[in-house]
Design brief:
Blueprint: H1 9-14, H2 21-34, H3 43-52, H4 55-69
Helix pairs in contact: 2-4
Amino acid sequence: MTCYLKHLGWLFRVLELDNDAGNRHRIDRAIKDALELPRDAPCEDVEAFLAALSGEERFELIDTLERTLA
């Protein structure tokens, strides 16, 4: 479910969150919601969406996550 998050350790640091099971689930839900993916979307789909984001879109995603997880 959160296998793609192993490549996003930097995101936990940016969001100032501990990289633990609870936060991995929170970030997973928030990312899927922000990308308008179903909550049960496979890791490969989420990874593909994240890889396709432009630099600006990545910054927008981080801003969205900061607001969502605050």
